[in-house]
Automatic annotation (TrEMBL):
Transmembrane segments: none annotated. Residues 9-155 form the Isochorismatase-like domain. Keywords: Hydrolase. This is Hydrolase. It comes from Pseudomonas fontis. InterPro entries: Isochorismatase-like_dom (IPR000868), Isochorismatase-like_sf (IPR036380), Isochorismatase_domain (IPR050993). The keyword Cell membrane does not apply. PANTHER family: HYDROLASE, ISOCHORISMATASE DOMAIN-CONTAINING PROTEIN 2. One of its GO terms (molecular function) is hydrolase activity.
Length: 183
């Protein structure tokens, strides 16, 4: 199955100010998530940010919110966005959810399992996910794969959203997101 731009939403889970420093690759995670947000925003894909207990853990990292102006932000106390019942109806109305964020083996995993239980088609962007340890991330990714989530990369998302080199934004997006050194 391919990502359908008319049926998908990007969900960025808990990339928050007081959490980002705890993951294994904070700078890389931010850069790759910003890349994904920039590419999907150029294509008009809807985006939702979740925040785990923002009073204590702070808001979503500002540079990410800047990359996806107008994105909806939802708060939660449950690790799973599904269990927290915080996902907006606009996201729930679509059949596909592209997921990234942290921590891979906790909030991302539990949200993805919840979305799969709701019969959503879920695409986990592996290179825009992180955990405190590489082992925890790898274990979370494997469990999501075993449960039926599609494990993808940022470039896979971009090319599937474009669909063809004849897409009106292909040249611009390739120059911005595919040429030169990328995060």
């Amino acid at each position: 199955m391919l990502i359908d731009p008319t049926q998908s939403t990007l969900l960025v889970i808990d990339v928050q100010e007081k959490l980002i420093g705890a993951v294994s690759d904070p700078a890389g995670t931010l850069a790759r998530t910003r890349w994904l947000l920039g590419a999907t925003a150029e294509l008009g894909l809807p985006c939702v940010f979740s925040e785990q207990y923002p009073k204590g853990l702070g808001p979503t990292v500002a540079e990410l919110k800047e990359a996806a102006r107008g994105a909806e932000v939802v708060e939660k106390l449950h690790f799973s966005c599904v269990a927290a019942n915080c996902l907006p109806s606009s996201l729930m109305a679509r059949k596909q959810v592209i997921v990234c964020g942290m921590e891979t083996h906790v909030c991302v995993l539990q949200t993805v399992l919840g979305l799969l239980a709701l019969n959503k088609q879920v695409f986990v962007v592996e290179d825009a996910c992180d955990s405190r340890t590489a082992y925890s991330k790898a274990t979370g990714i494997q469990r999501m794969r075993d449960a039926g989530a599609q494990i993808v990369t940022r470039e896979m998302v971009l090319f599937e959203l474009l669909g063809s080199a004849s897409h009106e934004k292909f040249r611009t997006l390739s120059k911005t997101f595919l040429v030169g050194e990328q995060p």
